[in-house]
Amino acid sequence: MRPFAITPGVRAGRRPGALRAVTPLVAVVLAAAGCGHPARDYTIPPQPLPEHETPLKGRTATIGEVGYAVIGLRTKIPEVIGSHASWMPHGQYVRVRLLMVDHGRERHDFDPYRQRLVTADGATYLPNTDAMQISRAPAGVQTIASQEMRAFDLWYDVPANAKVKALRVLGDPSSSRLGDQLKGTAVGNTKNPVDISLT
Questions:
Q1: What does the alpha-carbon distance between residue 198 and residue 71 come to, in Å, rounded to a whole number?
Q2: Distances (CA, A) of 172 to 36, 99, 131, 175
Q3: Bridge partners of residue 151, in order along the sequence
Q4: Which of 185, 191, 29, 183 is CA-nearest to residue 97?
Q5: Does CATH number 2.60.40.1240 belong to domain 16-197?
Q6: Is there a contact between 64 and 104 (Cβ–Cβ < 8 Å)?
Q7: Which pTM was predicted?
Q8: Nearest CA to 171 among 195, 138, 151, 147?
Q9: Peptide bond into 46 cis (omega under 30)
Q10: Contacts with 188 (C-beta within 8 Å, 6 or more apart), sequence order
Q11: Straight-line distance from the first to the last Cα atom of the chain, in angstroms, rounded to the nearest whole number
């Protein structure tokens, strides 16, 4: 899977002002998660946003050795279109673009289908299987390699009048330290899951 790949079946429209907002966020995520001096950070080329998506900044969390950032959001999607099918939601589709960076020395697992969307009324929703399959989103548990950066979309089907509040990220809090691994101990002071605000 290519990092920062645009979801198949969704046209990408360039909006120069919005595109510039994504790159600083990536730099902030890398710096905030302990990547080092800014002079040693990567410069990530701007990425085109899918049509009607809103770029988000500063929506980050850390679980164990992995940093998570929500970098894009689109609500009120009326249909998901893929190369082999299209499907309409029961209510509305919501698409959340999640960026992950593994700062540890060990691989970490991530299950896209366990990430919950929280709405303003407190209800939670798991990713919609139809939309995830049709859009060719990740399937099954993903392994994030040491120092790897990866971004992909999560699709949800929520009531038509629902307002999104947060993405509840359930990550892998395990530690790269051999002593912690032998004890089965997570990274200290790790909260899991963590809500990342979408408002």
A1: 10
A2: 23, 15, 25, 9
A3: 99
A4: 29
A5: yes
A6: yes
A7: 0.78
A8: 195
A9: no
A10: none
A11: 29
Q: Which long-range contacts (CB under 8 A, 24 or more apart) does 38-46 make?
A: 46/19, 46/20, 46/22
Structural domain spans, the chain: 16-197
Rounded-to-10 torsion of CA 111, 86, 160, 54: 70
> 116 has which bridge partners?
168
Tally Cβ neighbours within 10 Å of residue 88: 14
The residues pairing with 73 across neighbouring beta strands, listed in sequence order, are: 54, 96
Using DSSP's 3-state secondary structure scheme, residue 122 falls into: coil
Q: Where are the alpha helices (DSSP H) in 107-155?
A: 129-134
107, amino acid identity = R
Task: Render pLDDT for 88-134 as a digit per residue (tens, 0 to 9).
Answer: 999 999 999 999 999 999 999 999 999 999 999 999 999 999 999 99
